[in-house]
Amino acid sequence: MDFPQESSGWVGELLRAHRPPSERFQRRCEELAQAWVGIQKLRQAKHRLGLPLLGLPALLRSLAGTVDSPGLLDSVLGWAGLDLQVPTSLASAGAWGRLASALGLVRGEALFYLRLTFADLFEPEPLSGLVAFRHDGGDDGGEVTLDSLNIQLDGLSRHWAGTAREHLKACEQALFDAWDETGFDEHDPPGLPS
């Protein structure tokens, strides 16, 4: 069984402690090692990328595109349980909370990308207002903060149909619940999805 070089230390120790490991155990260890290496690479890519105005699918694909590692995104999404085909489902919002925490994002940034994903679906041109807001320096012409961008997106959502706004609020809660359950820091290896 081949493990990524970056993860062989803790995986090797784990395997030696469970000799002889079952094939299922070996496969799961390999999946977790690949996911952890992928999370670390995406974390580094995210720090270089800054705060792009992208919804979840575009953000994650953009991050993965900067890292030359085939299958990286699939292993990370599999670990988190995130389906980019339905990024606004409750399950995906919870999975995003788990992944965002592992990537080292702050809660406000995780919320920003979730809200932006919804805005992509429910606003005809969601980015034009945010781009202008960022360019003009926010409401007061000063520094644009993550909080001020979240306030802008929250303001957009107030104009959506009641069910869309209610679903966004439920997804925000799922994100926060999953976030609170993870408690990652940059040195934690990922565990099994709950």
Pick out its properties.
disordered C terminus; 194 residues; disordered N terminus; single chain; mainly alpha
Tell me about this structure.
With 194 residues, the protein is mainly α. The protein has one domain. It has nine helices and no strands. The N terminus and C terminus are likely disordered.
Write a brief structural summary.
It is built from nine helices and no strands. It is mainly α and 194 residues long. The protein has one domain.
Describe the secondary structure blueprint for this structure.
Blueprint: H1 8-17, H2 23-49, H3 56-65, H4 72-80, H5 90-102, H6 107-122, H7 126-135, H8 146-157, H9 162-182
Helix pairs in contact: 2-4, 5-6, 5-9, 6-8, 6-9, 7-8
Number of helices: 9
Low-confidence stretches: 1-5, 186-194
Annotation, overall tally of beta strands? 0
What's the shape?
elongated
Which structural category fits the helices and strands? mainly alpha
Helix content: 55-70%
Using only C-alpha atoms, the radius of gyration works out to 18 Å
Query: How would you characterize the largest beta sheet?
Result: none
The SSE string, one letter per element, is HHHHHHHHH
Query: Per DSSP, what share of the residues sits in E-state strands of 2 or more residues?
Result: under 5%
Whole-Å distance between the termini? Answer: 26 Å
Number of domains: 1
Mean pLDDT: 79
